[in-house]
Specification:
Radius of gyration: 29 Å
Strand order of the largest sheet: 1-2
Shape: globular
Distance between the termini: 12 Å
Number of strands: 2
Structural class: mainly alpha
Helix content: over 70%
Largest sheet: 2 strands, antiparallel
Length: about 750
């Protein structure tokens, strides 16, 4: 019943908040805070219940055919508690934040609570199907966060977020189908028995695509740096700190259960982690936007966690330290980004800008904000005595263990140096933010006076207390890692299938030396790159505008190349009626067939023999009704195909809109043109487009043909259709749980 309560309580809040908001916004905000605090209390009670190794189990049989399966061991209960804590903290700051900005508070509150239900369901799931159902609820319900401001930038980022979520979700669903076919079960415990089998490689690869997209890993990270800056700061804290962890939960589930003995899988994870870690740090160094810098930082920290998971897979049963480090850094990163994004929200709701050049000097004379942001920055940079140092040290130790398996210099040694370099870049961009906000003076004296005038009224008491509460765990874990962090990771070993580490010399000379190397690299990068090259009286964005993976690859392929390919095919089909094969022979053949059938209707072939065949088929079908092929397999296949088709409707609509409904220059078609002339014209146009495609930097036009502006027919149909789908799924789950409770 505890699991049911944790899932239904946010849904009750989602239903009640908009209703209360019609009469009083204060009552709505109070209601949301109470619901999140109550959820946090239930999650804490559940975590205490399973602390000594127990588990709460709930099965909902026959839901959508496969049923829903939930299991709350300590790892899952711990992350549900962390999610509820983050939602409670964000809800404390949200009323003050939205008092300074565009309202839509009822919509935000409703979908925030639905997203909490989705996140809770993902972490409590005990099989891939249940995780997928709540993944979709979470992905669709969090879409209004990104689109909240309804500006062109917000709607474009929301379209990217939704497109990546839906497309990669369908890839994950295909992997789940194949996993069911190959293993016969989707339960995590049953997947463990099929570990290492070659037939599980393809399903695991497909599912990895969806989980990597939700986690924000390269090369499916394109939504993350764009969604966070446009979303409200409390939502950005949840997007970065918690929703990305649901993707890592999926990677953990298949990595530790299905592919725990595959070195190929481990090497793929290691490569993705190193690229993600380095790319995110480089993007953060170049960024001149406060929240974008923190978003790119999240991308980099996701890479750290992935490297830890890769080391755990490659080391096998000896990878307990690396696995514990990955789980520990998941917890630490969630707490760090909660603290830093709420600080960014406090800055933005007063300064109304995120540009670093205009934010210079905002934090001067604000000791509370200064102290809280400094703790978050130092923790993220991996400074000893703060939480980030502890988990990064564990991951680094796991990488060193992996490198020691091979004598002499190896690729793993190079990976270790990449790890230290990326950690140094983290120090550089956090140093940039800290000095910009709290030490530099704004060159505009009027703006600096305005910032100084906010020193005693930039936060309410409740928001100030919230910031302090988010900073306290950073100190507690950093000062007492063996007492605060390691006991948590040891309790997570049943889920990880690795032996935990009960004690580690975090402050030994070797570990302190590794952290010191990263700090020295970061200081050097700040002095010789940021201050001398990226700062010229103001912060300059020197990252090439064309070097954007979304604009360089994804949008051209999916918004231009595929529609162009469809248009070329449609042009060829349009030219075919001039050919006698289509215009004369095929219609004549069809006419002859129908005339033959018309004559056969009066013959004995139809009246006797065909009737006998139909009777025989009817008897066979009557026998088949007692066979499982008809009663179970065929309905299951048809249901699966229906679901896949239902998800593809929106994408099919967009594709056909590009091909047939978009205004394009009409081709000059004359009656005197033959099929060969038209074919040559189509090939000539294709060659011209291919030539433009091969010229880097010039083949991307400024304006896309697809109208993705807010309020267009396409965005309304896709966005609100998907939101209604999420609400429908939620109502179905509520109905099932109410019946169980009755």
């Amino acid at each position: 019943m505890m699991v049911i309560a944790l899932l239904l309580l946010p849904l009750a809040g989602a239903a009640a908040a908009p209703l209360c908001g019609r009469k009083s916004e204060k009552a709505r905000d109070l209601l949301v805070r109470l619901f999140t605090l109550f959820s946090c209390g239930l999650a804490a009670y559940l975590a205490c219940t399973v602390w000594r190794g127990g588990a709460a189990v709930l099965d909902v049989p026959d839901f959508c055919g496969l049923g829903l399966h939930f299991r709350a061991d300590f790892f899952r209960a711990m992350y549900v508690l962390l999610a509820s804590f983050m939602w409670a903290c964000a809800s404390q700051l949200s009323p003050e934040y939205f008092a300074h900005h565009r309202a839509n508070g009822g919509r935000y509150a409703c979908f925030t609570m639905i997203t909490l239900c989705g996140v809770t369901g993902v972490f409590l799931s005990d099989d891939l199907y249940t995780a997928f159902v709540f993944f979709e609820i979470m992905s669709i319900a969090s879409y209004p966060w990104v689109a909240h401001e309804e500006t062109p930038g917000a709607m474009r980022a929301a379209a990217t977020y939704l497109g990546v979520s839906v497309a990669c979700g369908m890839v994950t669903l295909m992997g789940i189908f194949l996993c069911w076919k190959e293993t016969g079960s989707l339960l995590f415990a049953d997947l463990k028995t099929h570990m290492g089998e070659e037939r599980a490689a393809l399903p695991a690869a497909l599912m990895l695509v969806g989980y990597c997209a939700k986690a924000g890993m390269f090369p499916l990270h394109i939504w993350l740096p764009k969604a966070h800056p446009v979303a409200p700061a409390p939502a950005s804290a949840l997007l970065s700190g918690m929703l990305t962890k649901t993707g890592l939960f999926g990677v953990l589930a298949i990595g530790m259960n299905l592919m725990g003995e595959s070195r190929t899988f481990g090497h793929v994870l290691l490569a993705l982690g190193l690229i993600t870690m380095t790319l995110g740090a480089v993007l953060a160094v170049f960024s001149v936007n406060l929240k974008r810098t923190l978003a790119c930082s999240s991308l980099s920290q996701i890479g750290y966690i992935t490297v830890g998971l890769a080391c755990a897979v490659l080391l096998g049963h000896h990878g307990g330290l690396a696995a514990s480090g990955a789980v520990g850094h998941m917890v630490n990163h969630s707490l760090l980004k909660l603290c830093l994004f709420l600080c960014a929200g406090a800055v933005y709701m007063n300064a109304h800008t995120l540009d670093l050049s205009r934010l210079r000097g905002f934090g001067r004379g604000k000791p509370l904000l200064h102290a809280v942001f400094l703790l978050g920055a130092l923790g993220l940079a991996g400074v000893p005595l703060l939480n980030g140092y502890t988990s990064k040290t564990m991951i680094h130790e796991g990488l060193v263990e992996l490198a020691e398996e091979v004598e002499g210099f190896s690729v793993y040694r190079l990976c270790e140096w990449i790890f230290l370099f990326a950690a140094g870049l983290t120090t550089a961009y956090m140093l940039k933010l800290y000095i910009c906000l709290f030490w530099q003076r704004n060159p505009e004296e009027e703006r600096q006076k305005e910032y100084d005038g906010m020193n005693r009224r930039y936060l309410t008491k409740r928001s100030a207390v919230t910031l302090v509460v988010t900073a306290l765990p950073l100190l507690a874990i950093g000062l007492l890692p063996n007492q605060a962090l390691l006991p948590l990771t040891v309790r997570c070993t049943p889920f990880l299938h690795r032996e935990g580490v009960e004690h580690l010399a975090f402050f030994s000379g070797t570990n302190l030396l590794g952290g010191g190397v990263s700090l020295l690299i970061g200081t050097a990068v700040y002095l010789f790159v940021v201050r001398s090259w990226l700062y010229r009286k103001e912060y300059v964005n020197r990252w090439p505008a064309w070097l954007d993976l979304e604009e360089l690859f994804y949008r051209p392929v999916f918004c231009r190349f595929l529609p162009w390919l469809g248009t070329a095919a449609a042009s060829l089909l349009d030219a075919l009626p001039g050919c006698k094969l289509v215009a004369v022979w095929i219609p004549s053949a069809v006419t002859a067939v129908f005339r033959a059938l018309d004559h056969l209707m009066d013959s004995k072939l139809v009246t006797r023999y065909l009737a006998g065949v139909c009777t025989f088929l009817a008897r066979c079908c009557d026998r088949l009704l007692e066979c499982r092929l008809v009663t179970r397999v065929i309905p299951a296949v048809l249901t699966a195909l229906t679901r896949v088709f239902d998800e593809l409707v929106d994408h099919t609509m967009l594709l056909f809109r590009e091909i047939f409904l978009t205004n394009r220059q009409e081709l000059n078609r004359s009656k005197n043109h033959s099929i060969f002339t038209r074919l040559a014209s189509a090939l000539s146009e294709g060659g011209h487009r291919l030539g433009r495609l091969l010229r880097p930097g010039r083949w991307l036009p400024r304006k896309e043909e697809t109208d993705m502006r807010y309020g267009s027919a396409v965005t309304n149909a896709v966005s609100f259709g998907l939101l209604l789908c999420a609400v429908g799924i939620v109502l179905a789950i509520v109905f099932v749980f109410i019946r169980i409770g009755a």
